[in-house]
Amino acid sequence: MNHWPKHKKECKQRAAELHDEALFKDPPAKEDCPICFLPMPAKLISCIMLPPATISSVPIHDFAEANEELAGKATEVYYPCCGKSICRGCEYSFVESGNEETCPFCKSDRMSKTDAENVEDLMKRVEANDAFSIYVLGSYYYHGDLGLQQDWARAMELWKQAADLGSSKAHCQLGISCSEYEKEGDSKKAEFHYEAAAMAGDEVVRLNLGCMEAQSGNMGRAVKHWTIAASAGNYTAMHYLLIAFNQSVASRATIDSSLRAYNNSCAEMRSDAREAFMGMFMVNN
After folding, report:
1. Which of 20, 33, 166, 279 is the most buried (most CB within 10 A)?
2. Does residue 245 register a pLDDT over 80?
3. Which domains does the chain have, with CATH numbers?
């Protein structure tokens, strides 16, 4: 401790370097849908079969801007009976085959179950320390769904538990709560949860971290965040990278590698079933 004043600056600098190494390393791969085994998209609109992005345009971004209601469609469906989530493409195929009344995994009758029975099923997964189910239960308490009384404090407790088990979605919700709803001075907590969500693979949070860095004038860090998000198939991040390139902030090498990774990621997420599900809404608009 007597030597601390002499190397305080160096230690803080090294701590910051180690933090950035963890923050900007490649995140884990996307989770796959357990039925079609395709990567689960952050936004289902990313799966629409539009032309690949180029150095001058990101077609899916332009399409999403013009069809905002489609960009907000849920990407997956959660089944509390067995704690599984499937993509909306597989749910669409399941319904089209006439099996919409049963769970695709345990074949239990979904339609006849009451809210109380669904909560009872969910609690079994919660008691088994399933992170996503704990996150879902927290969301039910937050919104007052499935007959549960709205309880924000309980929601926060559950999200913290899910975050401790590695849930990126829980970290994201905690970050939002810290930045918007809790007492002033919790910006560091919000940043901690946002960064934890990004490191766990949440590309939307990663995109937003890049925007926060850009607003602070840290364009080099912003480009790093957007590069990671774009590589996961985030069309807005790819769009921002092209803007950064046109403003001579991002290099041509960065853009070329990001375009390849972005287009490959989008291709991996696409399927006829996901396209058909989104097609139902495009026909109605």
Report:
1. 33
2. yes
3. 35-279 (1.25.40.10)
